[in-house]
Amino acid sequence: MSKRPRTFKLRALHSQDKYGVAGKNCQEVLLKGCQKFQLPISGCRLCLYEDGTELTEDYFQSLPDNTELMLLTPGQAWQGCLESRFRDKSSYLRYSCESRIRSYLKEVNAHASTLDPQLRAEYLKIISQMCEKLKSVRYNGNYFDRRNKGRERLCTAEGWFSCQGPFDLDACLSKHSINPYSNRESRILFSTWNLDHKIEKKRTIVPTLTEAVAEQDGREVDWEYFYSLLFTSDNLKLVHIACHKKSSHNLNCDETRIYKPKKRVVRKRDARRRQ
C-alpha cells in the first residue's frame, strides 16, 4: 500500500516566507522545500520548528499534518521556538491545546462558505456566540496545563497524560501514557495524540447544526449544546494514535437538546389565580 502524502508548513532560516509542502517521505519534502526556497539540496536538512529536533524518516511517519518544519542549509542551526515564544512548558502545552481547539473552530466556521446566503448568516451568528465563549475560556487551554487546579485538567500535577481509549470504549486497554513536560521527544510524540470527537465533528455535529439552523422555524438553536460537543471534554477524548479509530462512529446528537425549551408564557388571569 502506498503511503499517504503528508502536508507540512515549511520555513527557512532568515526568511519571512512560509510554504505548504506535501510529500510521502522526508526526502521528498526536503527536495520540494529546496525548490521553493531556491536552495541546493546538498547538505540541507529538516528539523521541527517547535524545538529544533532534526527530522528522520521515523519521526516523519509519526508527525501530524500541518506540522511546521524548518529547512536548514549546511552550517545553520535552529534551537526551536519553544524557549523564545513561551515562558515555560505549561505555557507551551496550553498553546498546543488552544491550537487544536482553534483548528476545530476554523473547520466549523469554514463550513459556512458552503451554505446559501440566508442560512449562512444565521449559521455564522451561532458560530460567533461559540467564538466569544471560547475566547472567555482561552480556548480550553487548561486541558493541557498541569498548573491548572480545576477538574478540566487532563493531566496530573506532574504532567502525565493517560489515553482515554477509543470512542467506543470506557478506557484504554493498552494503558498508554505520556509526559510531554519531561523532554522534547515526549512533546513530539504527544503531538500525535488526538483530541477525538466521540460524536464526529464533520460527519455528524456540523451537519446536524446546519439542519437545525435551516429548520428552526421560530425555535432557538441550543448553541451551547453544540459548543459542548465541538470544543469540550463532554465529547472530546484524548487518545493515543493507536487508539484513534477513523472509521464511522455511528453516534448521533441528542435530538432533545438541539433546540432550547420554549419558555412557558404565563397569562395574567392564571397569574391572578395563583395569588
TrEMBL record:
This is DNA fragmentation factor subunit beta. It comes from the Eukaryota. The keyword Hydrolase applies. Its main location: cytoplasm. It is found in: Cytoplasm; Nucleus. InterPro entries: CIDE-N_dom, DFF40, DFF40_C, His-Me_finger_sf. Residues 4-80 form the CIDE-N domain. GO terms for molecular function: DNA endonuclease activity; hydrolase activity. Nuclease that induces DNA fragmentation and chromatin condensation during apoptosis. Degrades naked DNA and induces apoptotic morphology. Heterodimer of DFFA and DFFB. Interacts with H1-1. Keywords: Apoptosis, Cytoplasm, Hydrolase, Nuclease, Nucleus. Pfam families: DFF40. SMART domains: CAD (SM00266). One of its GO terms (cellular component) is cytoplasm. One of its GO terms (biological process) is apoptotic DNA fragmentation. It comes from Phascolarctos cinereus.
